[in-house]
Predict the structure.
Amino acid sequence: MEIILPTDCGNSPRLLLVGEFVVNWACGHEEAMAPWLADDATWKLIGGAEDDAAAGGRIPWAPITADRIEILSTVTHGRLAACDGFLTSSAGRVDFAHMLRFTGAAKSARIAEMRTYLHQH
């Protein structure tokens, strides 16, 4: 898969973590994501059902198998982060936005809650 990340380096240690987490989401690499999810993490697909990522092992995956992911922007502040971009494949394009809330502000804090917005073209 081709991966395109923002060129700005940012000033937050979480920028890289969020980018890697979202790339792993796009690739379907649940095992790489699991260490960053809190034990009681929740993941809600807006417009869909809420998933308990820790207990149910269900993550609202992208509706296409992407050939390319482009992350347009990532913003972090304290316990919060957001990331948006799009996936493309021969099946079309899916725009995404992820809103993340961490268990704390420390660099090692895990993800407590995610909300994902998807729009397929």
Q: What stands out?
A: Strands lie at 2-4, 37-45, 50-51, 68-77, 80-89, 92-102, 111-120. Residues 81 and 110 are 12 Å apart (CA to CA). Residues 51-56 have pLDDT under 50 and may be disordered. The helical segments are 14-27, 30-33.
